[in-house]
Amino acid sequence: MGWFKRLKDGIQTATKYKKEAPDGLWYKCKSCSETSTVKELKENFFKCPKCDYHVRIGSHDYFDIIFDGKYNELFEDLYSVDFLEFTDLKPYTERLKSARKKTDLTDAITVAVGKVKKRALVIAAMDFSFIGGSMGSVVGEKIGNAIDYSLEHKIPLMVISKSGGARMMESAFSLMQMAKTSAKLTRLAKAGIPYFSFLTDPTTGGVTASFAMLGDINFAEPKALIGFAGPRVIKETIKKDLPEGFQTSEFLLEHGFLDFIVDRSELRDRIADMIHLFGY
Amino acid sequence: MVFLDFEKPLESLYHQLEKIQQVGEEGVLDVEPMIKELETKIRNTRKDIYSNLTGWQKVQLSRHPERPYTLYYINQMCRKFIELHGDRYYADDKAIVGGIGNLDGMNVVIIGQQKGVNTKMRQFRNFGMANPEGYRKALRLMKMAERFNMPVVCLIDTPGAFPGLEAEERGQAEAIARNLFEMAQLRVPIVCTVIGEGASGGAIGIGLGDRVYMLENTWYSVISPESCSSILWRNWDNKELAAEALKLTAEHMFEFGLIDDIIKEPLGGAHTAPEDMAKALKRHIKKAIQELQEMDPDERIEARIDKYSQMGHYERAGEKVEDKPE
Fold first, then answer.
1. Which of residues 55-74 of A touch B (CB under 8 A)?
2. CB pairs under 8 A between A and B
3. Is the distance from CB of B222 to CB of B256 less than 8 angstroms?
4. How far does the CA of residue B250 sit from the closest CA of chain A (Å)?
5. N vs C: which end of chain A shows fewer Cβ within 10 Å?
6. Nearest residue of A to residue B131 by CA position?
7. Cα gap B180→B187, rounded to integer Å
8. Which residues numbered 60-79 in B keep a CB inside 8 Å of some CB on A?
9. Does the structure's ipTM exceed the value 0.95?
10. Quick one: B60-309 is in which CATH superfamily?
């Protein structure tokens, strides 16, 4: 028998006395399910303090981690348009509107120029939170603009990929961004300006099959999903379960498609070294 | 003859024609006027059906089982052709064929996806879905073309790059990306034509060129209508809607400025008069190559990159976009 007995059923406390637990204080790891404070998480480069799981972060978080403090955003004025008047379950214009509202971003990529340990670098970083980081005309154009900026100022370029692939709502226009970005990268190569491709979780589809695989250095965060076809599609095609660790960064490193994997806590140092060793 | 669902009115007319011809063979009746009448009716019905095809109907036509494939066109267009095999790293992909051919006195390298003509061959060709070694074979042949100053001709006909386990292991994405990068700066002219299906990365992996054409009843898109339906509508039943929404026909692609020209097909589709189709294709390819050969290689490469750099639709913030009236 218990020490206390409930005399009245149900919750008796009036709603106005209810105590709210503030949001955003705690983080529960998707990988190990351990809980830590958001403060601890931030101080640990958005990695789980218990298991080092790299939490998906946005373009501005990467800028904060990589650049020496301040940086300048470039080409902020580009917006996607619904040129094809594409409607599936929802019109594309609606999807764009709600994505802009939800993320406070203009599209799935942000470009900035800044310094990493006093060495200049242009970074184009993708945001998965904006329609799955999908590549439409704006993503292609901004990467193109970033390439032009790198060429003009002779500054190395880094692209941080985090994308489900091409943006279906822009149909062939999104497909052509693969050709566009890859074609423009040849100009950077010809000018001898290094291009670093950093692949993060997830990088799939048309993004992997264009600029993400074309770096002078291809490197990735640990345990990121990287591939051409999505795991579900492959599973349906071969009608077999996929092996453990298939399409992870470690898998790609093993098969020769990455130069190395870097922990987020060492990212800034590594990038500074890369710029230095390429003579910039 | 194979009839697609929207060709049903034609099927019954052909049926009637066949019956009347049988009666005619018996020699009792003079069926000549009836046959003439039916043939006119068939022509008109065909015209009616084909003057107003939907996106999905064109997708069906592009997959017509009697449609000519890459090797057919190569054999029709070239007096001589040597097929070359293998990527020199891993294997010979049967879904992409390639080699050197002679196009009316002009030596060219021709590369294209190949589908099979019957069940066994379809499996052998992996339904035109290439693995990384296919794209690498294509690149090897293109680099060879560059060394010997031969123009490159690509014929595109694929439901997509193969989404298999080994394809991922061997770097499907890298193989396609590498082709895009190298094709952008290849020093010889590149002329690409979509002759059937132009699905996504698998198509563009041999599809970046100075001139890109589409046959009239083909499609080019970032995703097949079926897969688009399954992802965006979350079921397989909206492929017709998806085909319309994706605006994937040759007319759309031309209107958007994403391809350079449409090559007319014989009434009823390429398979109804394949020899005529091959002639038209050859004419377009030869003309394009002749024009492109006038240009200096560096100039041609710059023009090629500039062409792709301009593809895309977006607005600048000043132009106001968010509260566009709907």
1. none
2. 207
3. no
4. 11
5. N
6. A228
7. 14
8. none
9. no
10. 2-enoyl-CoA Hydratase; Chain A, domain 1 (3.90.226.10)
